[in-house]
Specification:
The chain is an alpha+beta fold and about 425 residues long. Helices cover about 55% and strands about 10% of the residues. The protein folds into 3 domains: about 1-125 and about 220-330, Phosphate transport system protein phou homolog 2, domain 2 (Methane Monooxygenase Hydroxylase, Chain G, domain 1, Up-down Bundle), CATH 1.20.58; about 140-205, 2-Layer Sandwich (Alpha-Beta Plaits), CATH 3.30.70; about 335-415, Alpha-Beta Plaits. The chain is built from 15 helices and 10 strands. A 4-stranded antiparallel sheet has the order 2-5-3-4, sandwiched between helices. Strands 6-9-7-8 form a 4-stranded antiparallel sheet. A hairpin with a 2-residue loop joins strand 3 (about 165-170) and strand 4 (about 175). Helix 1 runs antiparallel to helix 2 and helix 8 runs parallel beside helix 10. The longest helix has about 30 residues, at about 85-115.
Length: about 425
Amino acid sequence: MSSHRPRVVRSSVKEFMMDSSEGPKTVKGFLAEIKDTSELMVDLAYAAIFFSDADLAKEVRRLEDRMVEHLRGLRRLSILAARSPEDAEHMAGVLEIAAAVEKIADAAEDIAGIVASGIGILEDLRRDLRHAEEVVARVKVREDAEAVGQSLRDLALPVEIGMWIIAARRGGEWNFDPGRDFTVSGGDVLLVRGPEDGINLARKVMGAPELPEQPDPPEIVLSDLDRAVDLIVEMKDSSEVAVGLAYSALLFNSPALATEVANLEARSDAIHDELESWVLRSAQEARNPDDLRGLIRLAQASEMIFDSAREMTRLVEAGEELHPVIAAALVESDEFGHETVVQPGAPADGRTIKVLQIETETGMFVLAVQRGRRWTYRPKPRFTFQAGDRVIAVGPAEGGEELDDLAGLQREFQDV
């Protein structure tokens, strides 16, 4: 087990600066911003689908323009930073990863385009998206809520309840991607993202009444259309795991994680083929066959995200040396990968994810668990941890420390 014992290494990274009064000024800053922007675009794109909101779809297009500017700045700095053939080789790797992240943003724009172009969206899909592993919900802040007057930094919702505020509307104006200094006011309408169990926790903080529990759906024979919709949600969830594992592979320079990303990407091809088959079979039962076009486009966008995750890890698979600025940028971003190992007798040892309430208690989402040579992706709530399990998760930095506490892991910090 000692071979998997994580050690945090804090390295100093030489930064290359550019004159700019706003926005990132370093390679690290640009790379972190590109990652965060692409993730916000995906969140807003699925929110546009769920709420059938053209304004959210337009915001995804606007963020694409921001992404283009950041990529241009990153390329400019990377060229200036390459002062030798070795520097050029390392910077080429940085740009290769950025290009893969750009394709994730392109996929988000394609998803938003389903709403913007007026293509039909099946109500069955919206219903199933409520039960995806990460969901988006609207919450209106009541005047007497405990959150009123507090900043997002003070509320620390990602760590406290596992929910992120990705947008806020005050009056008629939207604030997309509000920063940590954003102060909540009564009457604000917030878009929150996180696990389904966290929605009512967020509503409580914002003074809103809890949503009633949905009754279990009656057992029915699944139609071809039902199967197609289920596969779309499966592709959405799996693609998000693939991206998280890809970033973790880069952060930890782990060929094993890179291999798992490749396996997920290969599996996605089979799911995509199966989905297309179910969509074609369901044409007769669809009230409006045009609605099925939305399913096909969503599947294509998800497949693009899988491919992008795979492209991000090719350098790791090939054993190439990564520029330290890559890991530094991933640590600086809003969400980053975290690795821990369950120790004997730890609070997590012998307990399930559901009992530990990891997402709502720490803000961390468990991407995968390695037990021996076997990996379990997206472990279900009933998954029981055992001593020696290697856990890969994503979330806020503070949540990583709380996950370590559950795993009983005491880290050794080393400055270099």
